[in-house]
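Q: What would this chain look like folded?
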Amino acid sequence: MQHTILGVLWWAGGALGIVLSRNNQRTVVPSVIIILTGWAMSDHAQALMISTRVHAIFGYTLMLAGVTRIIEVSFIVPKYTPEVPAVQDDHSEHTLNDGSNSAGGAQAVKTFRHLPPYLLVAAGLLFMSATDEELQTVHGAGMDHVTYILIMFSLSFIIYSLIVSLINLYSASGRNAPNQDTGNGAIELEETTNKWYARVPNTPNDPHIIGDDDD
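A: My prediction, written as structure tokens:
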């Protein structure tokens, strides 16, 4: 019955979140849903004690992720490019700004914004590792819940490091490279001024007429 009610909770809360997030408005409803789900999982009794403890830590991690997400949505304003009436169409009020701010407050904001996604990665790994088959095997091997949970958090650090590394690799290579070579037969034939947005060239092409070509 508890799993069914969780499904109803996600359906009802998801509908409210969609309504409140219209016109690119930020909402805390998804964070509240995550917190309620974490609370339910933290008090979800299992047959094995190790399974109960793993579910509890999974729930606490979800609740912490929801709280940090509420703080981010409520107090950290995302930075967008200013709406400039330029001739080209490479500006948008919903495009992330390329400018970097070296102020201490901005750096602290960037550091804090890594916390909610990492906690969600850790919670997801704990959730996938809390099946009855896995925990029965761990219990049979004589491993306690603390060791098992620390192993899962170690794996979450590795997975999140891989995610951040791939994002940085994408943003610093290929067409997003800061000093790309556009000559001598390079793949990138045209340099873009904004790594988040590139205008589609409007060069007219000669129409192709179906029929026999006159030689």
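The radius of gyration is 25 Å.
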